[in-house]
Amino acid sequence: MTVSQLSPTTRSDGLASPRSAPAALKFGPSDEFHRTLRQRVDGYFKSTGRQPRDCPRMYLKTAIILGWLAASYALLLLGAGTWWLALPLTMSLGLAMAACGFNIQHDGGHQAYSKRKWINKLAALTLDLLGGSSYVWDRKHNIIHHSFSNVTGHDNDVNIGFFGRISPHQKRLGFHRWQHFYLWFLYGFLPIKWQLYDDFRDVLAGRIEGRRFARPRGWDLATFLGGKAVFFSLAFGIPLLLYPLWVVLLCYLATSFVQGLALSIVFQLAHCVEEADFPLPRDDTGRLENSWAVHQVETTVDFAPRNRLLFWFIGGLNFQIEHHLFPRVSHVHYPALAPLVEDTCREYGLNYVAHPTFRAGVASHFHWLRRMGRPGVAPAEHDRKRIEEPATQA
Q1: Which of 272, 276, 302, 335 could be cross-linked to 268 through a Cys-Cys bond (beta carbons 3.0 to 4.6 Å apart)?
Q2: Could you give the CA distance from residue 246 to residue 225 in angstroms, rounded to a whole number?
């Protein structure tokens, strides 16, 4: 199977796939860029003999992360008799949960883990173990976010409600002036929000960002409810047999905060920075200017490509451009694909942006939040600034 077959299916209008493209929003015509890039990536796998999925490194990595997760939970449950033991263990558990989501669940949810559907499904179900819903995530992330990245009113991931303004097309409120300080704290509460509220709201409403989606039925509904039951048992039921309620709640809050901070920052550094575009479709046609592939490049930014430890922990999501273009390729290949993607972007005159370090990405997100919180910054004044730092292999 070639990478072209693993890439999002493109139609004449450049949409990611038939099921991920509501008729109300369309992309510009497909162009030579995506076809050329897929041919070059196909050539890479043919010349190296490597498989886009079912990578031994990924199976080993899965065992390590699941072992880390299980050990952190067991030690916190059975061996944390004092606060100075509980605190580092809650941090370890939160980071292990984030690593599980970044690596196992994410590759499985994108069908990038294996060519076998049941293995991908099993990997994706780890999200239900973490308190989320793999069913809702597939609709919200795969179908909506990966199709319409950074399109205000369509991409739910750039909508954090009245708490903050992270798109130039969102309404500014007075207290957003300080969002570049307070939002970092609120990021930590993301898991609590989707564990206890978002998933239930979306399923009951049958809508995400105003778009209808089929409510889970049959086994999907059983998985949704069963996953929530398992998570609540692990997070609250079992610990309450051993500890007072206030201790259990504190540990839950601390663990979730660490997990949420890690998850949120990784997403924000890839899409909500000074160098990322926030396009809108034309009012008369509902069509975006660029083709699907060009749109992914323009709205996404890589960061810290040389940081091997970060790459391992966050499942290659510092190579977000490569991930958005080839979501069904295992993340272990992203560092090797990055030079091909960058060279092709340069050849076709596209802005391939990569912050050289994690710190540079954080600074860009901070500056973007500050800019979006200032009075007088209207959508028309959203002039894109691009850095020319070359992307290098991790």
Answers
A1: 272
A2: 26
- What pLDDT digit, counting tens, does each position of 297-320 carry? 999 999 999 999 999 999 999 999
Closest CA to 188 of 116, 119, 280, 264: 264
Distance CA 309, CA 315 (A): 10
**C-alpha distances in angstroms, 40 versus 36, 298, 329?**
6, 20, 14
pLDDT (average), residues 100-115: 97
| CB 94, CB 192: distance < 8 Å | no
φ and ψ of 282, to 5 deg: -65, 140
Phi, psi of 29 (to 5 degrees): -60, 150
H-state helical runs in the chain: 3-6, 32-48, 56-79, 83-100, 106-109, 117-124, 126-129, 134-137, 179-186, 190-193, 199-205, 219-232, 238-240, 245-271, 292-298, 308-313, 320-325, 334-347, 358-373
Q: What Å distances lie between residue 111 and 6, 54, 98, 121, 141, CA to CA?
A: 9, 10, 19, 8, 13
What residue type is 228 in one-letter code?
A: K
- Name the 3-class secondary structure at 18: helix
Give the number of domains in the chain: 1
Mean pLDDT, to the nearest integer, of 104-125? 97
Question: What range does the domain containing 357 cover?
Answer: 3-17+25-381
Q: 172 and 378 in contact (C-beta within 8 Å)?
A: no
| Beta bridge partners of residue 355, listed in sequence order | 303
- Reading the block at residue 36, the tokens are 């050329």
Q: Is residue 100 part of a domain?
A: yes
User: Are the beta carbons of 158 and 271 closer than 8 angstroms?
Assistant: yes
| Sign of the torsion formed by the C-alpha atoms of 320, 326, 327 and 333 | negative
Whether 386 is in a domain gets the answer no
- Say whether 235 sits in a helix, a strand or coil: helix
Answer yes or no: are the C-beta atoms of 105 and 115 closer than 8 Å: no
DSSP assignment letter at 354: E
pLDDT band at 23 (very low <50, low <70, confident <90, very high): very low
The mean pLDDT value for 14-22 works out to 36
pTM for the complete prediction? 0.89
One-letter amino acid identity for 146? H
- Cα distances from 1 to residues 5, 42, 45, in angstroms, run 7, 9, 10
Residue 49 lies in a domain: yes
